[in-house]
Amino acid sequence: MLIDDLLPGDVVHLAVGDQVPADGLFISGFSVLVDESSLTGESEPVDVNEGKPFLLSGTKVLDGSCQMLVTAVGMRTQWGKLMAALTEGGNDETPLQVKLNGVANIIGKIGLFFAVLTFIVLSQGLIGQKYHEGLLLSWSGDDVLEILNHFAVAVTIVVVAVPEGLPLAVTLSLAYAMKKMMNDKALVRQLAACETMGSSTVICSDKTGTLTTNRMTVVKACICGNTVEVNDLLIPSSLSPKIPGIAAQTLLESIFNNTGGEVVINQDGKPDILGTPTEAALLEFALSLDGKYKQKRQETKIVKVEPFNSTKKRMSVILELPGGGYRAHCKGASEIVLAACDKFIDDRGSIVPLDRKTADKFNGIIETFSSEALRTLCLAYKALEHGFNHEEIPLQGYTFIGIVGIKDPVRPGVRESVASCRSAGIAVKMVTGDNINTARAIARECGILTDGLAIEGAEFREKTPKELLELIPKIQVLARSSPLDKHTLVKHLRTTFNEVVAVTGDGTNDAPALREADIGLAMGIAGTEVAKESADVVILDDNFSTIVTVAKWGRSVYVNIQKFVQFQLTVNVVALLVNFSSACFTGDAPLTAVQLLWVNMIMDTLGALALATEPPNDNLMKKAPVGRTGKFITNVMWRNILGQSLYQFTVIWYLQTQGRYIFGLEGSQSDIVVNTIIFNTFVFCQRKAKIA
């Protein structure tokens, strides 16, 4: 049957390797393990059974088989809704574009008003004279030429008012930042995104792959009663001396043989680990203890394997030893495997009985590991003294080897980067598909979860719009969230709370939120093509610290454009006042249209190059974000603009009225010389204003 023929109510048989074709419910089956990473972004497989019966379209069956009752098909499935959300949003103007458009509109209206007023003031004398002489309908060539001159002055004032160099300055600043950000491991796909990150007030970050390394790792271990923190660089030196030789060999034998993973040698001669994230973490831990995978596997022969299943919650294997005899190895849920043990290997390498006190100690270690959001596994073995006749693998009588605590560790520098965001007034929220306990622990370790709330997606979805108004500002962690939960959160933050939102993500499941956000940041290494296509910036090293660098560059762009606008408006205000006042009092404008175009297009280009290419500094991240509602032209900028304008206008007006007397100018050329002096003074004043 084709997938197009499926309808709600149909029953579908699923086996290992199948992709779930529609949303449905588990009816019957065994040991079903599903990869939901395409929807949740979490790489750890999920068990599906009568207690957790939901199967979602687009996910893959990794183990087991089952029958599924189809409940939704096509665009009504979770995958369909995810694809539909990709077509929404993503075309809004950036906060800076909105503000610059507002500034340009105001300047244009002011310029047009003064131009019309100037034309009326200049023309009213001639028109009044014609009216009094009764020659209102009789116009000579000289009269028309005079009116055209007045119109030219009015056009000059419009030219003065409009900041022609502004688009050039903005483009130069964005292009310069784009090139520099590439050196800082950030590939900008949308030019406007360079500054948007500088205005961001909220970052909604994914956990796996962004805050964490997306590589499950053994971070703590309890072997022979000794608990140690495992560091990649210090494993042999810190752990090996504490493990007796017999215990170390038994541990390596257990990990290398009782596994669903495999170690292969790649083209570079380096080991590659295949298997689930948990299996890979264990194999990597064993290799770091100087374990030889191939050699250890060849020492023994695997007689029987009992794969992990959700009922027994453990995996077992029977090995035939080289000297004869058999040995069973078991690993799985710590409480269950520990309960099956009656002996343990002590710190001297001796096998001793496991009494209640020691068992309580090990249970306490398991609880400690779990409270730190570590996934714990217990390893044990049993010598089969009476041989093995292919009967069932024993369930009791094991010897305890050790406990390992596995987690996806936080990337170096993340906590400092989150603290930097907080000091810059940017709120960081974690949105993840992982369980609530792990999300809380990672969020606390990163410094994200402080005094806010951590809730699950199911609870978030049940809230009414009124309840969301109170809830969303308090949320710091959203766990077990679906792609649409993340999309909803981002949409509310942007529309209801007027925040400028940045979203990070790496999977197809993050694409709707990446498009909905003001700026989407996709991971370059772990990110899918769909996520990268939906993003504005691609983080090439998948590091949260790079996101902070992008924010710093964004703020630098914003400040540089503010500096240029301040410089440009000072030029325009002075020229407007000089030409308007001169036109009203003398009937002529000292600054011609050509001169003003030269100032705007030639001198402003150099000004734009100087002001738009200033690099960022650390002080930028100590200020509050501008956000969506902040003023683009601040009070300090108005003070500088008006102060410089008043000073320049006073100097130029003094030259215009007293210039002939100061320089002793006479004759028909005196006006041209004075206007030339005024123009040069005007240009030098702009240089002074730019330096100031």
Automatic annotation (TrEMBL):
- Pfam families for this protein: Cation_ATPase (PF13246), Cation_ATPase_C (PF00689), E1-E2_ATPase (PF00122), Hydrolase_3 (PF08282)
**Which ranges of the sequence are coiled-coil?**
none
**What does UniProt give as GO cellular component?**
membrane
Q: What is this protein called?
A: Calcium-transporting ATPase
User: Which Gene3D superfamilies does the entry mention?
Assistant: Calcium-transporting ATPase, cytoplasmic domain N, Calcium-transporting ATPase, cytoplasmic transduction domain A, Calcium-transporting ATPase, transmembrane domain, HAD superfamily/HAD-like
Q: What class of enzyme is it?
A: translocase
E.C. number(s) listed in UniProt? 7.2.2.10
| Species per Swiss-Prot/TrEMBL record | Brachypodium distachyon (Purple false brome)
Residues that span the membrane, as ranges: 106-127, 147-177
Q: Which PROSITE patterns does the UniProt record give?
A: ATPASE_E1_E2
- Assigned keywords, A-Z: ATP-binding, Calcium, Calcium transport, Calmodulin-binding, Ion transport, Magnesium, Membrane, Metal-binding, Nucleotide-binding, Phosphoprotein, Translocase, Transmembrane, Transmembrane helix, Transport
The record ties this protein, via SUPFAM superfamilies, to: Calcium ATPase, transduction domain A, Calcium ATPase, transmembrane domain M, HAD-like, Metal cation-transporting ATPase, ATP-binding domain N
UniProt domain Cation-transporting P-type ATPase C-terminal: residue ranges? 589-686
Question: What PANTHER family does the annotation carry?
Answer: CALCIUM-TRANSPORTING ATPASE 3, PLASMA MEMBRANE-TYPE (PTHR24093:SF420), CATION TRANSPORTING ATPASE (PTHR24093)
* Domain of life, per lineage: Eukaryota
This protein's membrane topology, according to the annotation, is:
Multi-pass membrane protein
Q: Which NCBIfam families match?
A: ATPase-IIB_Ca, ATPase_P-type
Locate the P-type ATPase A domain: which residues? 3-85
GO molecular function per UniProt: ATP binding; ATP hydrolysis activity; calmodulin binding; metal ion binding; P-type calcium transporter activity
Q: Which family does it belong to?
A: Belongs to the cation transport ATPase (P-type) (TC 3.A.3) family. Type IIB subfamily.
Catalyses: Ca(2+)(in) + ATP + H2O = Ca(2+)(out) + ADP + phosphate + H(+)
Asked if Transport is a keyword of the record, the answer is yes
User: What's this protein's function?
Assistant: This magnesium-dependent enzyme catalyzes the hydrolysis of ATP coupled with the translocation of calcium from the cytosol out of the cell, into the endoplasmic reticulum, or into organelles.
